[in-house]
Amino acid sequence: MTTSLIDHAEFAPLFHSCEVIQGRDNALMQRVFELRFQVYCLERGFLPAANYPDGCEIDEYDAASAHFCAFNLRRELVGYVRLVPPDLTQSFPFQSHCSDLLEGAALAPPSQAAEISRLMVRSDYRRRRGDVLEGVTVDEDPARVVHELRDHSPQILLSLYRQMYAFSLAHGVHYWYAAMERLLARALNQMNFAFRQIGPPSDYYGVVAPYLGALHELEAHLEQRNPALMAWMQKPENMDV
Asked: What is the CATH number of the domain that holds 98?
């Protein structure tokens, strides 16, 4: 029997994720903001470090967002993502940078959507050649991408997506927006998370394009291509922060 990660019912055995609640899990949120500062300000230079003298990257979307963290077996913070709901104008953060749509593309109902934002994996889990910010390998060879699913970083990504999926089902979120590099979108597709590009590339913390994922389509795609992964996604994970 092959030991490939794809063939296991347990898809992220080395990592666990949970939702982090602001106002309740303040110490952990502090670690989250420090990780975001490390990645977005110091490592990638997306934001000027001088604007965050306390070493914490915080913005106007955090208060309304849902936050999710991934931990290794030593309970160290190794990954993070948030889901941002629409603001009072029914807009999402990506729309301030990626306003144009491709021909035939349409937006989702704002009340049923959220934007995947600040998705990141800690640097020591993405040091292989070809790794991007989110930790997946973006080699052009599809066979190699599948091979890389055995490695740790995609486990972190899957663990976080599982938490976002559970949250979305519970809160009436049926669509996910994401501003992604083309190669990250390709890697996610290899993992059977299919997003549709809805706009041209723009400069939004690097050159990215907006994508839209409909959860019912994602579910149907996973059920067809990898029913074990779909069953794992639907199994709740309980973890105390």
From this structure: 3.40.630.30
Q: Is residue 238 part of a domain?
A: no
Start-end of H helices in 18-105: 26-36
Find where tokens 């955090």 sit: 62
Would you tell me how many other CB atoms lie within 10 Å of the CB of residue 185?
Answer: 21
Q: How far apart are alpha carbons 141 and 136 in whole angstroms?
A: 13
- What local confidence, expressed as pLDDT, does residue 25 receive? 94
Supply the pLDDT for residue 182. Answer: 87
Cα distance between residue 212 and residue 193, in whole Å = 11
121-163 pLDDT, tens per residue? 998 887 554 455 555 554 444 444 333 334 556 889 999 999 9
Q: How many domains does the chain have?
A: 1
Question: Which residue range is the domain that position 13 belongs to?
Answer: 5-233
How far apart are the C-alpha atoms of 71 and 146, rounded to whole Å? 23
